[in-house]
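Reminder: ligand-aware prediction takes two inputs, not one.
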Amino acid sequence: PVLLSAALLLIMDRSFGTSFFLSDIFIQGEVLHYQGGSPVLFEHLFWFLGHPEVYIVLLPALGITSEVMSTNARKPIFGYRAMVASILAIAFLSTIVWGHHMFISGMNPFLGSVFTFTTLLIAIPSAVKAFNYITTLWKGNLQLNPAMLFSIGLVSTFITGGLTGIILGDSTLDINVHDTYFVVAHFHLVMGISALYGLFAGVYHWFPKMFKRMMNKNLGYVHFWITAICAYGVFFPMHFVGMAGVPRRYYENTAFPMFDELTDVNVLITVFALIAGLAQLVFLYNFISSIFYGKPTEQNPWKSNTLEWTAPIEHLHGNWEGKIPEVHRWAYDYSKTQDNGEYVIPGQDFVPQNIPLQQDEEELNH
Ligand SMILES: [Cu+2]
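Here is what comes back for the chain with copper (II) ion:
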């Protein structure tokens, strides 16, 4: 709604002579009729959309990662309540930090310090999530299938990309690298690559549910490792290109001889980017060919607790035949043992959500 309003005001400025975003304008001594508007106001309205939008892309990927990681670590997600609270905190904070995109737009420096404060607050729930993901892996019985590898990859890029967010969120540090390739590297690692990894994790994980067949695991490994190595190959050196001062959004930099010595690094980045792009063809081939020729799946290939894996493989209207299953427990009863050290269901390290609670279990604290 805010961006739409901004666009409507912009149309009024361009077509109907208003001055929402246009301040007093003089052209060759002639005074145009525009008066009192502010171009910075447009930036405010744009980034009021723009910042929360990157979290709209990232937060679902974080949720997918929690599910995939818990299932494949055969452990409950660590600090479940803290994980949920962190997602809510990030979602809320994302609406009051937009000014960190505008530290050099002519904004009042005091207002900049306020946006620095709210922006750096996001480091807290983000760190909670990173630590809890790692603690979920700790001493888990890790099943390193492609979905799990992409989830772990997400945690890696979420941390490496997030750390430079602390630099860019601080107005005094941001001013030095604002609008350089440092920002491009930060942003694409933490939001672009992380969100893509979450998307890939979700596709590899739920593909059997969608198409009743498995994707090829080995092609999944090829896809992951080439993508993971090339993603860092592209964005790690890019930080240094940015710190050397190369601006973003320029068609080419050949007019600036001082950047000539960075050409080799840019060529290296381009080569990694091309290889990363080719690796996505492996994924595309795997995805399409597996729809038709993949190994038929069993009911619950990842031995998951969540309800979708209790639905019959044949897709039915309403998902289940007859009565809809009842949920008796949370989704994370992996490797759960009784007092005598036995698994709750003997010989099976997971308890699906539709298995009734036993009385002695109710005392056990989740
Ligand atoms: Cu932002």
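The pocket of copper (II) ion is lined by residues 51, 97, 100-101 (CB under 6 Å). The mean pLDDT is 92. We will return to this case in the review session.
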